[in-house]
Amino acid sequence: MDLRQLKQFTVLAEELNFRRAATRLHMTQPPLSAAIQRLEESVGVLLFDRDRSKVRLTAAGTAFLREVRQLLAQAEAAVATARSAEQGVTDALGIAAVDSVAFELLPGILQTFCAAFPSAQISLQMASTENAIAALHKGTLDVAIIVPSANPAGGLTITALTEERFCLAVAAHHRLSHRRTVRLSELADDQFVSLYPFSSGPGYSVALLQAFHDAKIYPRIAPGDSRTLANLVLVSAGVSVALVPRPVRHLQVAGVTFLDVVSEARKPLRYPLALAKASGNDSPLVKVFEDMAREAVAGKRKRPTRA
């Protein structure tokens, strides 16, 4: 199996006609048919159903097509990266970040960065802390903004960036929806939807558990989804309430009201954000990104915020 065969398979899957596929590939039908047959033998399954009138993808062929398209895209990206390096263009930065920073912090950082380095090739993915750390270990990322846990991952350099606040999402008809600020202890009888499974977001989970412990309440936790929007829809229906990162307030979900939430001492509930990179990564672009992130945080602190 080689990339040429995979390209031939992809074109045939798109055309579902050997004549048209062969024309696109600048070849004749018999060699194309033979190449597809060899590919099926290599994979060990039939990828196409064929008869005299039409060609159809099998279930296995449909699944294979999804993977092949990703593989071909990665191969093209690898070629582009190699050619860029040959030309001396190596300004590339792979970034991951937890979803909550996409609303306020991250856009400002990237705007400043891209203005300073307009030729830099930026790749960005929104990811859980768990997935971002895994990508850093694999070397597929350069830097990430994560919610750190008490037990830092080995092989990484993790530095504190800032703290972000939680807020409370409730249904518009919730008994406390008219309030601007509530104490966590006032929610002792409510059911909470769990937004952050411990395995994917231990930093979030630890902060939430500590807040509940301090408030001396033992919350009822309903099954949740890893996607914030899905959980907010449950909140809108009055099924549960949710503690979410405060920047999530920027999402407009019908029937959901966001309230500030504080401890018994009237202190905001917070969780940490940190920068993470592979230990020994001395990339100048990573350092610049880290410096700009710290500057963005400092600028945010200087701006007045609603209590």
Automatic annotation (TrEMBL):
<dbReference type="GO" id="GO:0003677">
    <property type="term" value="F:DNA binding"/>
</dbReference>
<dbReference type="InterPro" id="IPR000847">
    <property type="entry name" value="LysR_HTH_N"/>
</dbReference>
<keyword id="KW-0805">Transcription regulation</keyword>
<protein>
    <submittedName>
        <fullName>DNA-binding transcriptional LysR family regulator</fullName>
    </submittedName>
</protein>
<dbReference type="InterPro" id="IPR036390">
    <property type="entry name" value="WH_DNA-bd_sf"/>
</dbReference>
<keyword id="KW-0804">Transcription</keyword>
<dbReference type="Pfam" id="PF00126">
    <property type="entry name" value="HTH_1"/>
</dbReference>
<feature type="domain" description="HTH lysR-type">
    <location>
        <begin position="1"/>
        <end position="58"/>
    </location>
</feature>
<comment type="similarity">
    <text>Belongs to the LysR transcriptional regulatory family.</text>
</comment>
<dbReference type="GO" id="GO:0003700">
    <property type="term" value="F:DNA-binding transcription factor activity"/>
</dbReference>
<dbReference type="InterPro" id="IPR036388">
    <property type="entry name" value="WH-like_DNA-bd_sf"/>
</dbReference>
<dbReference type="InterPro" id="IPR005119">
    <property type="entry name" value="LysR_subst-bd"/>
</dbReference>
<keyword id="KW-0238">DNA-binding</keyword>
<dbReference type="GO" id="GO:0032993">
    <property type="term" value="C:protein-DNA complex"/>
</dbReference>
<dbReference type="Pfam" id="PF03466">
    <property type="entry name" value="LysR_substrate"/>
</dbReference>
